[in-house]
Amino acid sequence: MSTADADAMRGKICLVSGATRGIGQATALGLARRGATVVIIGRSAERIKNTLALLRQESGSSCIEGIQADLSSVVETRQAAATFLAKYARLDVLINNVGGTFLRYQASPEGYELTWALDYLNHFVLTQQLLDLLKDSAAKSGEARVIEITSSIYRYSPAGFTRLQGQQGYNGVAAYAQAKRAQLVYALQLARQVQRSGVRVNAVTPGFVATGIAGNNGGGANLVMGLIRRFSLPVDEGARPILQLACAAQYKGVSGRYFYRFQEQKPDPSCAKPEHVEQLWRVSTEMAVL
Ligand SMILES: NC(=O)c1ccc[n+]([C@@H]2O[C@H](COP(=O)([O-])OP(=O)(O)OC[C@H]3O[C@@H](n4cnc5c(N)ncnc54)[C@H](OP(=O)(O)O)[C@@H]3O)[C@@H](O)[C@H]2O)c1
224 CA distance to ligand 1 centroid (A)? Predict the structure, then answer.
């Protein structure tokens, strides 16, 4: 990253979801090192406290704050957005990073399938709640950026959103792939909707990254993840393409794109099909009670 890119983040406010470890934490650190004010969202007060201490120490910046919320909950996601809105008058970069995989069926606090709630629905809710602020910030400074952290596994999910995973016949990998597809479809559609406002929306797959993702699934899954981790990228490397999209001048004006790390890729054409986009918007709005 050039000095000009680093300087470009001074005075900017960035919000990163799911940043108490993994890619989110490394991304938050990268943003703080580049001089941005960084707000992280996490579910545990203790892990937020520890992360803030780590980020402040590693970046030398004191402009790092935390909001506590269980992002699998629509209600708590809305509260997190309200807390942010009450405190900050601008938002330059929103990084929807939080996610997880659940091999056994679990329900979110509002009774939705947990992967869908954690990997997609709160991204929709948080962004929609903060959209006016993003637009306002873009009007004042020329641009605001939203980045969806998705996964190339989305390709293995059926195109539509009429059937979401439920308790009956639950398949955790399919649930993850569908939520990641939803993120991508949402990002592409939002980019089209807000194009004239100066809000830029892109999606990125960070690659295989050695984090604790899927570490909650116990036994055999942990063994497999341990093996995969050996061949995975270090966490800092996973954050690098995200930081590029968030900070680099070369992405000014770039919107509605999908990247596998630094490489732009054509999204599966089904992601732009109006009936699928409409389905996703309908189901998201109903679940988010917007
Ligand atoms: N790692 C990869 O190879 C890979 C590949 C493709 C895409 N991705 C995507 O990258 C993103 C980050 O993944 P990661 O690998 O960094 O995962 P990770 O190491 O498991 O980190 C997940 C983060 O989300 C937080 N989180 C989990 N549940 C939460 C909840 N209910 N409310 C609020 N925060 C919650 C965790 O907080 P706690 O500290 O409280 O657990 C943690 O900070 C995900 O969207 C993932 O799908 C990862």
Answer: 18
Give the tokens for residue 2. Answer: 């050039």
64: phi > 0 → left, psi -120 to 50 → alpha, else beta; which? beta
Is 22's C-beta closer than 6 angstroms to any atom of ligand 1? yes
pLDDT for 289: 85
Q: CA-CA distance, 219 to 135, in Å (whole number)? A: 46
CB of 101 closer than 6 angstroms to any ligand 1 atom? no
Q: Best mutation site among 15, 17, 21 for ligand 1, i.e. most ligand atoms within 8 A of its Cβ?
A: 21
Q: What residues of the chain score a pLDDT lower than 70?
A: 1-7, 214-215, 217-226, 290
Tokens of 248: 């680099």
Judging by beta carbons within 10 Å of its beta carbon (0-12, 13-18, 19+), is residue 62 exposed, middle or buried? Answer: exposed
Cβ–ligand 1 contact at 76 (below 6 Å): no
Q: What is the pLDDT of residue 213?
A: 77
User: What is the per-residue pLDDT for 229?
Assistant: 74
pTM comes to: 0.96
For ligand 1, is residue 43 a contact (CB within 6 Å)? yes
8 Å CB contact between 245 and 202: yes
